[in-house]
Fold:
Amino acid sequence: MATINPYIHFNGNAEEAFTFYKSVFGGEFAKIMRYKDLSSPEFPVAENDANRIMHITLPIGKSNALLASDVLEIMGQVTENDNRNTISISAESREEADKLFNGLSEGGKVEMPIADGPFGSYFGMFADKFGVQWMVDFTPKCNGQK
Structure:
């Protein structure tokens, strides 16, 4: 069965927020990636965005996690009134990821088609027909599959 975890977008202070969350929940970060880590000719990152958090994961309990990223400055700002939250689904297989992505995105707006991503996961993003933001991923290494 897929797991669902909250994903929060920040305006450059994701690391500060997650350091705070870590002080409350305890544990260690499972992953921290900065935009500069993936900067390449195909995906150039502006110098002012390079140290922003592209992805951070804080495991909470045995099977949950809090996830986040900073919004790139070129993408604008998020505010308290914006939909700055995204539901992130970690599927157990590519087939399950496809089923969830295709089903939930029907009638919505696909922002990133599901495909093999640069950091090793099968990943896609969309807003469903109700405007709810979703991310679906399958990461073989995390799920013990290839």
Summary: Residues 9 and 81 are 12 Å apart (CA to CA). The chain is about 20% helix and 35% strand. The chain has a mean pLDDT of 86.
